Structures are given as C-alpha cells and as structure tokens.
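quick q for whoever's on today - can somebody do inverse folding on this one?? i tried earlier but teh output was garbage lol. tokens:
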C-alpha cells in the first residue's frame, strides 16, 4: 500500500442542541478529519474523536494533533505496510493515544477496501446488512429528557440511553420508566459513583435497565467486579477498557456483562475486532459506542457494527441528531430505528467538500 500523502482537517461545528453529562456540556464539537491518499489518488477517511477537553479520556484535539503530526504520520509515511492490519502494530512503540492512532488506522482500512473495490464491512467479515440504531439523551432536566426520549421513540430508535449522576438518577429513571414502561432503556454514569454508592445503585435495579454503563472510576476494573456481584442490572464498561488486555482483565474478574467498543478509545479496528472476538468466546456482549461524532466516524461505526457480535443496538444515530448538516454525503439516515449498511466501496460515504470547507479551522498536508 503506497501512501503518498496524508491530509488533516481540523473542524469545528455547533451542535443543534447542547449535550450534557455530569462532567460538563458540549455546545460545539471540534474534530480531526484524516485523508490518507495512495499513489493512484484513492482516498481513505478517518476521524479523530477526542474532545476539546480531557473529560472523557486524557486525549484532546490538541494532544491528538501533536501525536499525529509529530509521531504517527511520520511513522506511517516511512513504513512499507502491505495490509491495514500492520498499522496498529506499527504504532506499538507509542503508548496509548488511541484516538490519534484510530484516526489513521481507520483511514488506512477505508483506503484498503477502496483499493479492493469492496465495502469495508465486507472486508472486515461483517454479516449484518441493516443495523439497529440507539440514541442518547443528554438533556440537563427531567422534562427535557422525557421530551427528547419521546422524539427518539417517534423516530423508531430501538434503544435509549440516558446520562445519570447520583443527584438525578433515581428521579430521572423513574420518570422515564413511568412514561415508557416497555422501552429498552439503559443508563450511562461516566464514572459518577464509587463503591460507597453500592446500596444506592441497587435501588436502580427496579427500573429494569438493559445495563448501567461505567458506574465507577475510569481505571477501576477490580471494583466493578465487586459491584457487578451486588447488582441485578448488567454492568457495561466503557472508559475502563482501552485495550484487549483490559478486556481480558474485566472478563476474568467478572467486572461486566457488556463492553461498549469504541474504535477511538481502543486504537482502531485491529484491537476492536480482537475485543469483539474475545467477548464472543467468553459470553460478554458488545455494542458500539458513540462520541458525538461527525459522519466519517459514524460511517466507521456502522462498518464495525456489522460484525456478528454486535447484536445489541449501538450508539449510532442519524447525522441530523447533532448536526444541521454533516460533512459527509450521503448523510447517515435512521429509518424506523434502522440504518442500511452502504454498498459503495470503503466506508461508503464521501466528504461533502463544501460543508467541510465551511467548518474547517485549518488544513495541513504531509508527504
Ligand atoms: Mg459511555
């Protein structure tokens, strides 16, 4: 695979509505769009999904840019890889910085699938031609959350997630459950609790949640194993699982019954697919998490979600959930809670250059 040129676009777009968690509110989203171009002019696309500040993991747009420009892009440009599987090992001398790694690794997979003239999901061995979409409510007040959930249910979303914290959880979940008794409902805590809250968290069992995501500390796999034993509700790990090794630890300890796999958090397709395979063998279920992302990352999430193990609706919503206009064409559309997997080569979407230009802060090329 001869890579001639790599282009980074740093973009910024306002969300249609602010998105809140107990850690803060996202009003505007910055992102990094990566183009990897081969000697025939074919382009593979990736997206750096780090946020502007390190509230989710330690990476930010700024740290990702630094690692991409100074470390990963020079490594990739001087390498002579023959397959995208070689990119993740190529980056093994770099600790963590998984979102920066994934931005490039995913772009190389897209390019490779385009060189073969096949959809990426088929190259990955995916089997699902339609995937089920899930939406995340991120409103600060209970009434607003209920209104958001009504909108999602009207749009046919198959599973709804709400963000919770110790101050709001019980009242919020009770209100949503009363309004929607049959809804596939789950909660994401983004590490808002400690083991001292075990009795409090047990009270949430009554709401028949599909799972509670990342209740305890981001680096705490052991204490989640103690908590999972106490709860009827399934624990799902997100922030805690940044590598295949973390997944092995969590599975061995019984820390969770679900793992949310995010390409950015784990460093790309190679670790994500290995994690999917391991979970399948060990009876831990998986789904694909979202990052309030732009269309390139969304298209990669769709490709990943075609793998057999992703049998629970993922955090993949339509482009219009967050954006007035996305940077891809065609945009991702959810119909009756489902997304049709594209048949075009690679991730099956193109950059909308007009929109990209409107939202670009700057663009840099490397060769
Ligand atoms: Mg989460």
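ok took a stab at it. sequence:
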């Amino acid at each position: 695979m001869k890579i001639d040129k790599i282009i980074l676009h740093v973009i910024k777009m306002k969300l249609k509505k602010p998105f809140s968690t107990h850690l803060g509110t996202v009003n505007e989203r910055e992102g990094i769009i990566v183009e990897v171009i081969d000697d025939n002019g074919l382009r593979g696309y990736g997206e750096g999904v780090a946020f502007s500040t390190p509230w989710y993991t330690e990476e930010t747009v700024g740290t990702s840019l630094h690692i991409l420009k100074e470390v990963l892009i020079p490594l990739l440009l001087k390498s002579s890889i023959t397959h995208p599987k070689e990119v993740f090992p190529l980056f093994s001398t770099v600790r963590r910085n998984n979102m920066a790694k994934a931005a490039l690794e995913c772009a190389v997979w897209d390019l490779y699938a385009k060189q073969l003239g096949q959809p990426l999901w088929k190259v990955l061995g995916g089997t699902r031609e339609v995937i089920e979409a899930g939406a995340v409510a991120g409103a600060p007040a209970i009434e607003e959350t209920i209104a958001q959930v009504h909108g999602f249910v009207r749009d046919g979303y198959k599973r709804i997630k709400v963000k919770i914290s110790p101050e709001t959880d019980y009242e919020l979940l009770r209100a949503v459950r009363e309004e929607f008794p049959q809804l596939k409902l789950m909660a994401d805590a983004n590490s808002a609790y400690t083991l001292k809250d075990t009795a409090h968290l047990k009270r949430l069992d009554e709401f028949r949640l599909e799972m509670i995501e990342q209740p305890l500390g981001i680096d705490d796999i052991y204490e989640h194993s103690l908590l999972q034993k106490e709860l009827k509700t399934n624990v799902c790990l997100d922030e805690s699982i940044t590598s295949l090794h973390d997944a092995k630890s969590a599975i061995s300890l019984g820390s969770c019954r679900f793992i949310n796999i995010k390409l950015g958090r784990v460093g790309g397709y190679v670790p994500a697919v290995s994690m999917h395979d391991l979970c399948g063998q060990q009876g831990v279920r998986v789904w694909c998490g979202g990052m309030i992302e732009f269309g390139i990352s969304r298209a990669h999430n769709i490709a990943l979600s075609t793998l057999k193990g992703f049998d629970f609706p993922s955090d993949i919503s339509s482009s219009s959930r967050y954006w007035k206009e996305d940077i891809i064409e065609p945009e991702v559309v959810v119909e009756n809670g489902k997304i049709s997997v594209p048949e075009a080569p690679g991730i099956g979407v193109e950059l909308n250059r007009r929109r990209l230009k409107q939202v670009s802060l700057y663009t840099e090329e490397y060769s």
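fwiw DSSP finds 13 helices and 15 strands in the chain. also The pocket of magnesium ion is lined by residues 188, 190, 213-214, 238, 260, 289 (CB under 6 Å). so keep that in mind when u check it
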